[in-house]
Amino acid sequence: MVSTNLHRCTFATLARVAISNYDSLMSIKDDLIKEIDAYLARSGMNATEFGVAVLNDTAFVHRLRRGKDVRVATVEKVRKWMADHPLARRHRKAEARSAA
Question: Residues with Cβ < 8 Å from 64, sequence gap 6 or more?
């Protein structure tokens, strides 16, 4: 018979690990929502505009706020986009005013 460490784990141990991973995921998601909300406040964009600009997804921010899961790759993509476009909408408005 093959013995593994998994056989020695109790349900309570497995539950603690699952809860710890869940808490980490929730923290990442909560942090991302805060970062997006701060970006929206600074840039003047709304959630739909942001979702389209970053992921071509009109409902991304709304789903995230309702608790839907997000992949690590998506978190990284969103954070990179915000870093690369610090004031996306305000720049467009300023350009439009200066062109007029």
Answer: 29, 32, 33, 36, 70
Which residues, in sequence order, are CB contacts of 57 under 8 Å at separation 6+?
51
Rounded distance, CA 36 to CA 39, Å? 5
Q: Does 46 fall in a domain?
A: yes
The count of other CB atoms within 10 Å of the CB of residue 34 is 10
**C-beta neighbour count of 64 within 10 angstroms:** 21
Q: What is the pLDDT of residues 12-68, one digit of tens each?
A: 554 555 555 656 666 889 999 999 999 999 999 999 999 999 999 999 999 999 999
Domain-located, residue 4: no
Q: What distances in angstroms separate CA 92 from CA 21, 32, 34, 43, 77, one per listed residue?
A: 41, 24, 24, 10, 22
Q: Which domain holds residue 48?
A: 10-99
pTM of the predicted model as reported, rounded to 2 decimal places:
0.67
